[in-house]
Specification:
heterodimer, A: alpha+beta, six-stranded mixed sheet, 25 helices, B: 169 residues, two-stranded antiparallel sheet, 5 helices, 28% helix, elongated
């Protein structure tokens, strides 16, 4: 019998044939993977074959919700899983907004998009009524226009719309998928995958009930949960007031704010960028929240004066302030808001967009490229007008933008001349905003994160910055990272937002599962499910060719010291890094090549993957 | 003077918690379409939660072609004149599910629940419990009366007046 809180169905839409199928959510999948990230990971492993073209019809987009989606439990939306065109390996993005709840109310736990439509279409899901509709008139429109046109056409403001912008249509490999006003599933190029399927948007409306195992118990649980949230400094005070904006000030304090394409670690200490209170009073208009969220970290900003007057954007978030700010040596707040708005409308990932521009700026500074290569744009550090031109060119794949639209790894290959030295990425994914030279745990995190240079699987930087663990220590980091990664992988099945970290324990999560679904779990069960998910994703990546050689960091971090600030003179030591990585492999049950061992697969209940992994090991030998 | 739930649009984030606590209280499920309070999000600027204001001339009641709705004089709440559970088949003058009440309410506060028989549903303040007000994460909802709101406005204006006087002196 299927558990409470689930819709019990997966919707499968094949765009090649136009066929729509509803399949039951198997209790086996639910028991082993719960939902969200786990569900997506297993479906991807089973359904996306080795070596397929990420931008071809064989790739799939798997939108998964979790048992908490659509209920009053503060959640974060959906997890989108796919094979990334940017990295050629596993990728999953989590995105807030409202669409996950709506999909659940429509009666689906997950949505699988496969194949490729012949011409531009959009998908309309209205409970059990599913329609593939013509999108010729919307193709080419930006993400906001697309949203407005679709709700107008379908005649209901309550409809939730997932959509891409021109960047996704043009198969830009750093293109994002949007929902709500500007909530994004951004990293790894999901927008390009959606564009490759000729799918402009997915509109969802649902009217069904979600029943839980113990409603009264759940409401009591949520009341207590609210109290814990209100009492904790992050979700109780900082995020409601400033969102993620204080990040810049904090990273400056530790000297780990990536600056000038990762050459420096301190930026804009005396500018408005490092003063969240000033940003708030200058441009923030009101708070926005995702579905059922009590934190309301979203900040709707409006520029009332200056060169970029009239811009209204949800943000800028810290990662955007870093990528389009410090990384490009740009301290003009208004220009960052404008660039943020452009990326949102054109449908680009701000982190990767800022990263490719910073990479190009360093190449320009060092004379590897000149105005001839950049279509006449003067790519000096902090030149906001040049950045604006470039963002447009990237989204439209025009001239120099065509090269940058491939992400830093591919752009460096095309430019040649040692530009690879300045391409800061892991496995092709541009790094998020923390310099690993000043945080040893983050160095390991970036190297082994499932989708490439990502900070989210364990968010270990939070504990390293807060002083909970020693940021310079090597000992114990691998184990700490493993435990945290597994616990957070479990929260990604429910799906809870990272910003609630610290307000729940394994024990309270188990209780939440019982109230929601009726499933009885121990803390060990949660950890095991987390480990199973991590192992499944590793197996997918191994099948795509990922080995130990790929679990590393850009050379810059081992060679160049930080020039100033609280992390001055620091760099990574290769031996220490290797020691952490080897220890992590041991703990995870991966062999010296990084392939999960037979014993590990048996331990986490994945005996069915043994033959695949054995074959891959033999292939290598 | 009737109490009612009013929203402060500057504080409302559109999170929808009020809808969920309402449908779980009233219907024991999570479904905003069964909630007596509804959030309207018009991206990007507008988020407001609206519910019944217990009008003095309730258009929902007066527009009912079957005369099936009544307003309680004391509390101002609107509902069917009969309790459906007491009837095996609906009595004369029963709700036919035409939606006229939904059509005429200026606040979109009336909804039709369609089960075996249609039932119009709207806010009844949960006997003064108002869990939506209690659960609202930003304190955007308030259980109040028009007189209280007017008094607040008077106080603000009076303070402004005082300030300008002080500046002159």
């Amino acid at each position: 019998m299927l558990l409470s809180a689930y819709a019990g169905k997966i919707l499968r839409v094949n765009l090649t044939s136009g066929k729509v199928k509803t399949i039951p959510l198997s209790s086996n999948l639910v028991e082993n993977y719960v939902g969200g990230k786990g569900l997506g990971a297993r479906l991807l492993y089973d359904e996306v074959k080795r070596g397929i073209d990420p931008l071809g019809p064989d790739n799939k987009l798997i939108f998964a919700t979790g048992p908490a989606s659509g209920t009053i439990v503060p959640t974060k939306g959906y997890i989108l899983t796919f094979k990334s065109p940017l990295t050629n390996i596993y990728a999953s993005c989590s995105s807030g907004g409202f669409v996950a709840a709506e999909l659940k109310w429509a009666g689906y736990d997950a949505l699988i998009i496969e194949g490729r439509a012949e011409k531009p279409v959009y998908l309309w899901i209205d409970d059990q009524h599913i329609e593939i509709r013509d999108a010729k008139h919307i193709w080419g429109k930006d993400t906001i226009e697309t949203y407005e046109m679709i709700i107008e056409e379908l005649g209901d403001h309550n409809i939730k719309v997932i959509r891409i912008g021109p960047a996704g249509e043009n198969l830009v490999k750093i293109a994002a998928v949007f929902n709500a006003f500007s909530r994004t599933a951004a990293r790894g190029g999901p927008g390009a995958v959606m564009g490759s399927k000729n799918l402009k948007a997915i509109a969802v409306r649902g009217s069904k009930n979600i029943e839980v195992n113990d409603m009264d118990g759940l409401i009591e649980f949520v009341k207590d949960f609210y109290k814990t949230i209100k009492a904790s400094p992050g979700p109780g005070e900082r995020y409601p007031k400033y969102g993620t904006m204080p990040g810049l000030k904090e990273r400056n304090f530790w000297g780990i704010l990536p600056t000038k394409n990762w050459q420096e670690g301190v930026f804009g200490v005396d500018t408005i960028l490092a003063d969240p209170e000033a940003i708030r009073s200058k441009i923030v208009f009101k708070n926005k929240a995702c579905h059922s969220c009590v934190v309301n970290c979203g900040k709707l900003s409006v520029l009332k004066e200056g060169k970029y007057k009239g811009v209204a954007v949800e943000g800028p978030e810290y990662e955007t302030l870093f990528a389009l700010g410090s990384l490009c040596y740009n301290s003009n707040l208004e220009s960052i808001a404008k660039l943020n708005d452009m990326c949102d409308r054109l449908g680009l990932d701000t982190i990767s967009t800022g990263s490719v521009i910073a990479f190009a700026m360093e190449c320009y500074e060092r004379g590897l490229i000149t105005k001839k290569d950049t279509d006449g744009i003067e790519l000096t550090w902090g030149n906001d007008e040049a950045m604006i031109q470039l963002v447009n060119k990237i989204a439209m794949k025009e001239g120099f933008g065509n090269i940058l639209s491939e992400g830093v790894r591919e752009a460096a290959k095309q430019l040649g001349k040692d530009s690879e030295e300045f391409a800061i990425h892991v496995k092709g994914l541009e790094l998020a905003s923390l310099d690993p030279r000043g945080l040893k745990g983050m160095a390991l995190q970036f190297a082994i994160a499932d989708r490439g240079g990502c900070h989210l699987p364990a968010t270990i930087y939070k504990d390293e910055c807060s002083g909970k663990i020693d940021r310079f220590a090597i000992e114990g980091k691998a184990e700490y990272l493993k435990n945290l990664t597994e616990l957070l992988a479990f929260t990604d099945t429910l799906i809870l937002c990272r910003f609630y970290r610290g307000t729940y324990t394994a024990e309270s999560l188990a209780q939440l599962m019982l109230l929601l679904t009726g499933a009885k779990m121990t803390e060990n069960d949660l950890q095991l499910i987390g480990e199973r998910i991590v192992t499944t994703i590793r197996a997918f990546n191994v099948r795509e060719g990922i080995r130990k050689k790929d679990d590393t960091l850009p050379k810059r971090f081992f060679k160049e010291v930080m020039p100033e600030g609280a992390s001055k003179d620091l760099l990574l030591n290769e031996d220490e890094f290797n020691q952490m990585r080897d220890e992590f492999y041991d703990l995870m049950g991966w062999d010296q090549d990084g392939i999960p061992t037979r014993e590990q697969l048996v331990k986490v209940g994945l005996s069915d993957l043994i033959s695949d992994m054995t074959a891959l090991r033999e292939e290598a030998e | 003077m009737h109490q009612m739930i009013l929203v402060n649009p500057e504080k409302c984030t559109g999170c929808g918690v009020c809808e969920l606590i309402c449908s779980s209280t009233k219907e024991k499920v999570f479904n905003p379409r069964l909630s007596r309070i509804r959030v309207t999000r018009m991206e990007p600027f507008v988020d407001v939660a609206l519910t019944c204001r217990f009008c003095e001339i309730p258009l929902c009641v007066s527009s009912c072609p079957m005369d099936a709705l009544r307003q309680d004089e004391k509390s101002g709440t609107v509902g069917l004149w009969y309790n459906l559970q007491l009837y095996r088949i609906p009595p004369p003058n029963h709700c036919i599910g035409c939606g006229s009440c939904v059509e005429h309410c200026k606040f979109g506060a009336m909804r039709l629940k369609r089960k075996r028989h249609p039932v119009p549903i709207s806010c009844d303040l949960c006997g003064g419990e108002t869990p939506c007000v209690k659960f609202c994460p930003t304190g955007a909802l308030e259980l109040t009366t028009l007189e209280m709101i007017a008094q607040k406005h008077r106080e603000v204006t009076a303070k402004e007046f005082l300030k300008s006087l002080a500046a002159e002196i």
